[in-house]
Amino acid sequence: MKDVNLGIVGLGNVGSGTLTILAENGDEIARKLGFRLNVTAVCSRSVKTKTLPAGLKPRLVTPDWREVVASPDVDVVAELIGGTGTAREVVEAALAAGKSVVTANKELVALEGVALWRQAEANGVTLAMEASVCGGIPIHSVLREGIAGDRIETLFGILNGTSNYILTEIEDHGSDFNAVLAEAQKLGYAEADPTADVDGFDARSKLALLTSLAFGVQLAPADIPTEGIRRISPTDFQYASQLDCTIKLLCSARRVDGGLFVSVRPALLSKRAIMAGVKGAYNAVWSRGTFGADTFYYGRGAGPNPTGVAVVSDLMRVARSLRPEPAHRVPPFAFTSLTESKPLEIGLQKRPWYLRFRITDQPGIIRDLSSILAEHSISIDAVLQLPDLDKHNLPFVITLENSPESAVRLAVEKMGRLPFMVEPPLALPMEKGV
Q1: pTM of the model
Q2: What are phi and psi of 412, to 5 degrees?
């Protein structure tokens, strides 16, 4: 059976991991496919300084991606650059040239995935994107095929390994956020500019993709309410522990009458929940279906090898589709069409809440806060205060009973204007059953 030839565009972490797997595991891959995957072209802006894995001898080595796409010696293009500029040009040009594409680019697929999918369909080729979410967890395949017979009601995810690593270190060692971030950058878990990770934007793109796969809707990432982890401190973990909770950057999507509640934000999570045990740079996805109930998926969320495995697995799937052509492909977004949608207004959602304050101590503080909560018909569940000698920067916590988020946000905004506040209150939803 004829081999399938690959063009790899981008030799960063993911591209390098992909090449290593193709080189070192090539015989095993050929045994599974019945033919070989040959890397015939590679492209990188710094290609002349790159050392390719032993055994790989591409005929074309170039800094110009156009040469890879145009090469008659390339059957499938792997776009492993990232971003939405050049990467989009690569994918669109490859699809227009009648070549299937594998990508690990969550930002591009979240923004333009449906348009690229339609372009692939029009040209009779495949767009494969398993590596775009959760690295080594085959979550696309799970939602697209593995549990496709179910009706997903709720989906939660820890989708950013950098944020999860930082929160784990703060919880386990009582470290300051900035100190842990600096260590994460030194270890290579966080970029020099960590904004996408710690402010939730990376996780937001991934959630937009998973929401399409799970619910058959097309959401703009910018429509998803998103908060990052910069304000989470060791104090918050101390109070969370008193409530038998931890804190995670949770990506959530819930089906309710009328639509979906979707969000990315730090939240308190019961330590009895399975996802509470997800530590360090790992990712996890939990889903609940109408018929199949709960399923849980866990693994490395990033890194050259776990993400490279996802890329190579996609390359194998696409290669199989080339010989012979299957009668019916599984759509890359699970549904044959996606309904354009927007999340429900997050303010309508009811949840218990954790409010953490830093105040200058004086009489009447609880009275004033309780009065504001009462104005908004919000009931207090508990008031917690750990011993602290600094009366000019005193932390304490109020937990709230099930309350509409809109009312909580209005109350918190008003509380933030009280003269004894050292900083605006921190408000986190409390999740009990993930």
Answers
A1: 0.84
A2: -65, -40
